[in-house]
Design a protein that fits this description.
The complex is a heterodimer of chains A (294) and B (471). Chain A is α/β, with parallel strands linked by helices. Chain A folds into two domains: 5-92, Elongation Factor Tu (Ef-tu), domain 3; 103-260, Rossmann fold, CATH 3.40.50. Chain A is 29% helix and 28% strand. Chain A has helices at 25-28, 71-77, 112-115, 117-125, 145-151, 170-179, 193-203, 239-242, 253-260, 264-277, 281-286, and strands spanning 6-14, 17-23, 36-40, 48-51, 54-56, 61-67, 87-92, 103-108, 129-136, 154-159, 166-167, 186-190, 210-213, 229-232, 235-238, 245-247. In chain A, the strands form four sheets. Chain A has a seven-stranded mixed β-sheet with strand order 11-10-9-8-12-13-16, with helices on both faces. A four-stranded antiparallel β-sheet of chain A has the order 1-2-6-5. In chain A, strand 12 (186-190), helix 7 (193-203) and strand 13 form a beta-alpha-beta unit. The longest helix of chain A has 14 residues, at 264-277. Helix content of chain B is 33%, strand content 16%. In chain B, a hairpin with a 5-residue loop joins strand 10 and strand 11 (353-366). Chain B is globular, with a radius of gyration of 23 Å. In chain B, helix 4 packs across helix 9. The chains are: A alpha/beta (294), B alpha/beta (471). At the A-B interface, helix 2, strand 7, strand 14, helix 9 and helix 10 of A face strand 5 and helix 14 of B. Bound molecules: flavin-adenine dinucleotide (2 copies), iron/sulfur cluster (2 copies) and FE2/S2 (inorganic) cluster. One iron/sulfur cluster binds at residues 53, 55, 57, 59, 82, 88-89, 92, 94, 97-98, 113-114, 117, 444 of chain B.
Chain lengths: 294, 471
């Protein structure tokens, strides 16, 4: 029973978004829509949460989409097919609430474009009418649309520059659908914090029950440290064990934004020192800006 | 009289130096010092010290072996009842356990049993004299141990020795429980914990890290699908408590668990070589007075705090921390704000804590725990400046494992109820011990519970016919 967490497949599917397929039977056989894993790329790395975006029981594999942001995501992306992760724990968090709601609306941005796929699938299997909206800055950054398209009833795409679908964001498309008389019984959003907040605002007037996959900073992911605490309806919740799905209309967004930025300076230091860390002095000297030398 | 010679002082790093590094504070005894301390022991016929030790370490016997300069044999003598002497010698609250009962303590000072215990265990390890016991012939029984803290390690060690197949499942990426993620390097070097775990693996225990049980696997699945005959739950008390006062979610307010995990497990004190960050407060207030609070405040000092404060709602005599830790903290310059309690936190424009409002307390009538209850003095509120707060007011039962374990009875605090003679829970063949049964207690108590459970598991499994296994 040796778990190796081997990377079976890795590719940059659109600029800056890397798809990882990792072998781990233990997690694959227990994964549920909306859950996540905690990953360490190497022994000195951080423990970072990543959403289970798909899994294959037979192959015993899980799929993760990684957006490069800072050092920890960069170190993951530095790994190659055939390499193993240092640590992989999961599946963590509650599964998303999936049942027969009626008409369900899903929104995904950033890693959420990958992450809403299992939820879309599960919602559909429960017999819901499922509408999905995905967003990116530009058309060439849209990924996963075929997969999502194959399991939902309606798929909308938005881009910030208008190069594909509606010009704008998930919440703009949502507003338009509502304006056109569409009604939803349930909404679920996954992506960056700003998007989650904006989308929750957009469903509030209609009182559409809204779950958001909260992306608080996490450390252990098992409710042991309290690092991921967020205020929801005036109560402190731990996003890793009480969530990640929490009530978007009750989240204290201001507090979450502040808590997400606690390590901003350290992240910058880490980023700057990283390039030096992965190279020897010799390599550094040889790597001239013109790319000469090596 | 022999015992009247003064108790040996442990050589240690001077406070002003050690308060800025993460190296272990006491150096340990030299052979000369150990021999001279051992010579103080009266080798009592009816050794009271043994009664004070929760696992009944054969104290006069091991000290006698030290006197005979058989240091490794002394370590083995301790290991007959205590699997982790290098750890316990360092972290047991000896002053309320073995040493509290030592007869010499009546007139003079008690024998430094903890120092001696540490000395022989270190000697055995450093001289590479550790013997890996030959396990009994395989019994064909399999036991799953959930959690690799002192309690789980003890169960695993005992059962492997008896010939059972043991798999330890640990949620984190490193074994050791609180010994690894909680107690800091300067008090318990991590290489010692690792050496103990390595020995266990050499004996044949299988360690599976990254395994959050209740999520990755349920207890029922372990027993019904994976062919385990018994399960031991030693998951500790890993749920941080907060006070639920205004401002508690401001940045730079940590639970002690988070702060210590970042620094110890993730090695944030070596950031950015290790990628996990931790904030470095200049004026750090730690709320609480136990070992965890002392570890946090002394860690903050080592990370560069100019002012490191303990804010505790009772008086000095009631500080629950180990005496040596309180003393070390004082020496290192920690300020003690006693009979004080925070009532709210105030943040700056960036959402970071910049002060807390405290209220002064006085001691009233004794409460159910027998300690005098602290009562707030009305109108005594005042502001205390701080740029970091570490909340260290205790822990509760972490619910993760229980989500798939509804059929194990728990008490009103959420801790598991067991038959104290066997540590068996209300679910047959499922045992539990350590902090998840008692609430936060001590390393040696967690180990004691593990030993009782191991014996009971062995007895019960030996009575069982061999089970057919599909895996
Ligand atoms: C439940 C959950 C699921 C997630 N799923 C995915 C996913 O599928 N794919 C993906 O690319 N990203 C996902 N994320 C976000 C991902 O964890 C962060 O992008 C990553 O930790 C950033 O690390 P970094 O060192 O590369 O960047 P940094 O430079 O360290 O940080 C960039 C930003 O990431 C956030 N962050 C930093 N450390 C953590 C941490 N330990 N935990 C959470 N957030 C952190 C902070 O807000 C920070 O401002 C998820 C987050 C959560 C909480
Ligand atoms: C900072 C600190 C300082 C302390 N100082 C002292 C001291 O000086 N002296 C002393 O005697 N005691 C001290 N204690 C108390 C002592 O450490 C504990 O009583 C003891 O460690 C309890 O042992 P345990 O085996 O029950 O649990 P723990 O040591 O808590 O270990 C439990 C393990 O189980 C794992 N786990 C949890 N949930 C799961 C799950 N679902 N699946 C798999 N694994 C899981 C955890 O990750 C952990 O590794 C201190 C505690 C702390 C926090
Ligand atoms: S295990 Fe702890 S209490 Fe027992 S003798 Fe050793 S130091 Fe004393
Ligand atoms: S009570 Fe004190 S003097 Fe007597 S055997 Fe124990 S340690 Fe030695
Ligand atoms: S990440 Fe530690 S409690 Fe949620």
């Amino acid at each position: 029973m040796v778990r190796e967490y081997r990377i079976i497949e890795k590719s940059e599917i659109v600029p800056n978004v890397h798809k990882f397929v990792i072998r781990d039977h233990s997690i694959a056989r227990k994964a549920q829509a909306g859950q996540f894993v905690l990953v360490m790329a190497n022994e000195k790395g951080e423990r970072i949460p990543l959403t289970l975006s798909d899994w294959d029981l037979k192959e015993g594999t899980i799929t993760l989409y990684v957006l490069e942001l800072g050092v920890s995501t960069m170190e993951l992306i530095d790994l190659c097919e055939g390499d193993s992760l240092f640590s992989l724990a999961g599946p963590l968090g509650h599964e998303a609430e999936v049942k027969k709601f009626g008409r369900v609306l899903l929104g995904g941005g950033c890693f959420g474009v990958g992450g809403i796929y299992p939820i879309a699938k599960a919602m559909k299997e429960e017999g819901n009418h499922v509408t999905a909206i995905i967003e990116a800055r530009s058309n060439y950054l849209i990924y996963n649309q075929e997969e999502i398209g194959s399991v939902v009833d309606e798929l909308y795409i938005t881009t910030s520059d208008g190069s594909m679908g509606l010009k704008g964001h998930v919440q703009d498309q949502l507003a338009e659908l509502i304006k056109n008389g569409k009604r939803y019984d349930r909404a679920y959003f996954m992506g960056c914090t700003f998007m989650l907040m904006k989308c929750s605002e957009a469903t509030r007037p209609q009182k559409i029950p809204t779950g958001v996959a909260l992306n608080a900073i996490m450390l252990d992911g098992t409710g042991m440290c309290g690092c991921c605490r967020v205020s929801v309806g005036g109560e402190t919740k731990f996003a890793c064990v009480d969530g990640p799905e929490l009530d978007g209309h009750a989240v204290d967004w201001d507090e979450l934004f502040i808590r997400k930025h606690i390590y901003r300076e350290e992240e910058a230091v880490s980023y700057q020192s990283h390039a030096c860390r992965s190279m020897t002095g010799y390599e550094r000297d040889r790597k001239t800006p013109e790319g000469g030398g090596a | 009289m022999i015992g009247s010679s003064p108790r040996t002082k442990m050589p240690e790093q001077p406070p002003e130096i050690r308060a800025r590094n993460f190296k272990e504070v006491p150096f340990g005894l030299s052979e000369e010092l150990a021999l001279s301390e051992a010579s103080r022991c009266l080798n009592c016929k009816n050794p009271l010290c043994v009664q004070g030790c929760p696992v009944g370490v054969k104290i006069p016997e091991f000290i006698k072996l030290i006197k005979e300069e058989q240091f490794a044999a002394a370590a083995r003598k301790i290991k007959e009842t205590n699997a982790l002497p290098a750890v316990c010698g360092r972290v047991c609250p000896q002053e309320v356990q073995c040493e509290a009962k030592c007869i010499l303590g009546i007139k003079h000072e008690p024998v430094a049993i903890g120092y001696l215990e540490r000395f022989c265990a270190d000697y055995e390890r450093e001289m590479e004299l550790t013997e890996i016991p030959e396990p009994a012939p395989p019994t064909g029984k399999r036991v799953a141990v959930i959690g690799s803290g002192p309690s789980g390690l003890t169960v695993a060690g005992d059962l492997v020795k008896l010939g059972h197949e043991v798999v330890i499942f640990e949620a984190l990426h490193k074994p050791g429980g609180v010994l690894t993620y909680g107690i800091p390097e300067f008090r318990l070097p991590k290489k010692i914990v690792q050496a103990e775990v390595d020995n266990l693996i050499k004996q044949g225990a299988d360690l599976q890290v990254d395994s959050v049980m209740g999520k990755m696997r349920s207890v029922d699945e372990l027993m019904n699908e994976d062919g385990f005959d018994a399960v031991y739950i030693g998951v500790g008390a890993g749920l941080p408590r907060f006070m639920n006062i205004p401002g508690e979610n401001l940045n730079n307010i940590y639970s002690a668990n988070e702060y210590l995990t970042r620094v110890n497990l993730m090695k944030a004190y070596l950031f950015p070589i290790y990628a996990t960050p931790v904030e470095k407060g200049k004026k750090v207030a730690v709320i609480g007075g136990g070992n965890v609070a002392m570890d946090s405040v002394r860690t903050a000092l080592r990370l560069g705090a100019e002012k490191a404060m303990i804010v505790y709602r009772r008086a000095k005599e009631q500080l629950p921390g180990r005496k040596e830790e309180v003393h070390h903290a004082e020496q290192e310059g920690v300020e003690f704000h006693l009979l004080h309690n925070p009532i709210r936190y105030i943040g700056d424009e960036n959402g970071c804590v910049k002060a807390m409002e405290c209220i002064k307390m006085e001691l009233g009538e004794p409460d159910s725990s027998g300690r005098r209850r602290p009562i707030p003095i009305e109108g005594s509120e005042f502001m205390l400046e701080c740029d970091m707060v570490i909340v260290s007011i205790g822990t509760g039962a972490n619910p993760v494992i229980f989500s798939t374990l509804p059929d194990v009875n728990r008490n009103k605090w959420g801790y598991i109820e067991v038959n104290e003679e066997t540590m068996e829970t209300s679910k047959p063949f499922v045992y539990a011990g350590g902090d998840i049964v008692t609430g936060s207690a001590t390393v040696i108590q967690a180990m004691g519970a593990g030993r009782i459970a191991a014996n009971a598991i062995h007895k019960k499994l030996s009575e069982q016919p061999k089970k057919k296994k599909d895996k």
